[in-house]
Amino acid sequence: MRLNRPSISAAAVLAGIWFAAAPCRGEGESGSWNGFAGNAQHTAQAPAKSQPLQRIRWQTPVDLNPQYAGNSLLAHYGSPLVTPANTVIVPVKTGETGGFRLDARKGVDGSLVWSLPTDYVLPLHNWTPPYGPVLTPASRLYFPGADGTVFYRDQPDSPEGDVGQIAFYGWPAYSAGREDYDGAVMINTPLTSDSSGVVYFGFAVAGPTPLGLASGIARIGPDGESTWISAAAASADPVMSKVAQNCAPALSPDGRLLYVAVSNAGAGYLLALDSRTLQPISRVRLTDPNTGRDAVLSDDGSASPVAGPDGDVYYGVLENPFGGNRGRGWLLHFDAFLTRSKTPASFGWDTTPSLVPTATVASYNGSSPYLLMTKYNNYPGLGGDGANRIAVLDPGASNIDEATGVPVMTEVLTALGLTPDGEPPAVKEWCINSAAVDPESRSVLAHSEDGKLYRWDLESNSLSESVTLTDGLGEAYTPTIVGVDGTVYAISNAILFAVGEL
């Protein structure tokens, strides 16, 4: 799709105070699901009390041509978005190896409001990366296009809305020589928006361009003004070749710091940048807490940073050597300026933890201001017993990990999956890279590879509700979310399911 770029009016700046309205919700949260893990801090907080998991209310494909490898589907599908008016925006893969469109559907019944094709081209990959649009608080929808450009659409709840296109490296340069950027520049992360409508993303450069672009991080303001910095310059390390694949940038609670990981297709750093200028503030080399070696930033993962309300930052990596921690990786933990490493968690592979207000866990009597929820798989064949769990962890307390002897975050609650998968105690994996936390019902919504969507009741520590979506299969991890009317959304076997009450 090619469009002329219309003028862009400045979006209204929406004031937002962290933690003022609801614990663990993001700065400027607007009662919607704006992007990956819900907001710019990736806290994955439900904007409304989730409905009972009584039935599938509607469903729609997110992949018109899924590519299976035996009984596995290795595709990280992008997160659906939900506007304050309850329009659900669904990224849809249309072709065998690529091709994407956006479908906007009414949350109440799934009926189509509008559909918009894109010309987006995937970066080089093994597992299919997610296609990650974002909504700003001013209800502008941004979505990736070809050649590193970003499209936007206004009035996402309406069948008609203005559409435009922005090139972060300058519209004059792009419009004067589009063929020079064709296939050379590709967005390689989901988009993230702050409370004033500024959008951030990572991009990969695979060939020469007239401007000498290098893979890095871009910022587009609500007035269309843009800037970028290369991964090498941002990290002060010339061998850093890109933003970590699928790593959605995150913002600090006050919006001043931008967190993103960069890599050389293996090792890398977590960076803190000035969110206004993208100038480097600090960096930390990502290492394995057990061996001290460089941790692995895998292109097959989709881990993104999380910024807690106290400013602490969390990011998941793979261990080095692989298998040294049963293939679980590590959830690394730092202070706001990345100057101090704190207690990690013993699982970090392909996951973005969700924040849990301590008040939702009645049995908790510790001192941490919030807890973390994550999948907690224990892979057989790599030293684990296949007893795959989900867990609530205390980031401020530690115990010794029995597999490695490393001090790790203390388990507050865990829940074992219900569907057997081989010899006991093996059960099906939890198929999430981000789970929705519902403080009002004191529960977590998570999808399993057994094809079921579950409610984990944090008061009773039980899987209190479930609904069968599909027969189940091996999948790359996808998010679960909650809409503004409490509908729960989960992706299974290339289909988005809207689940709620009768």
Summarize the model shown.
With 502 residues, the chain is mainly beta. It has helices at 171-176, 178-181, 231-235, and strands spanning 55-61, 72-73, 81-82, 87-93, 100-106, 112-117, 134-135, 140-144, 149-154, 163-167, 185-187, 192-193, 199-205, 216-220, 226-230, 242-243, 250-251, 257-263, 268-274, 280-285, 306-307, 313-317, 330-334, 354-357, 370-376, 389-400, 407-416, 432-434, 436-438, 443-447, 452-457, 462-468, 474-475, 478-479, 481-482, 488-492, 495-500.
Count of helical regions: 3
Low-confidence stretches: 1-29
Roughly how many Å apart are the termini?
Answer: 40 Å
Mean pLDDT score, rounded? 94
The SS-based structural class is mainly beta
What fraction of residues sit in β-strands? 35-45%
Label the overall shape: globular
Let me know the number of strands: 37
What percentage of residues falls in helices of 4 or more residues? under 10%
Instruction: Tell me about the largest β-sheet.
Output: 5 strands, antiparallel
Roughly how many Å is the radius of gyration? 21 Å
Description:
The protein has helices spanning 171-176, 178-181, 231-235; strands at 55-61, 72-73, 81-82, 87-93, 100-106, 112-117, 134-135, 140-144, 149-154, 163-167, 185-187, 192-193, 199-205, 216-220, 226-230, 242-243, 250-251, 257-263, 268-274, 280-285, 306-307, 313-317, 330-334, 354-357, 370-376, 389-400, 407-416, 432-434, 436-438, 443-447, 452-457, 462-468, 474-475, 478-479, 481-482, 488-492, 495-500. Strand 30 and strand 31 (452-457) form a beta hairpin. The model is unreliable at 1-29 (pLDDT under 50). Strands 11, 12, 13, 14 and 15 form a five-stranded antiparallel β-sheet that branches. It contains three helices and 37 strands. With 502 residues, it is mostly beta strands. The longest helix is centred in the middle third of the chain and has 6 residues, at 171-176.
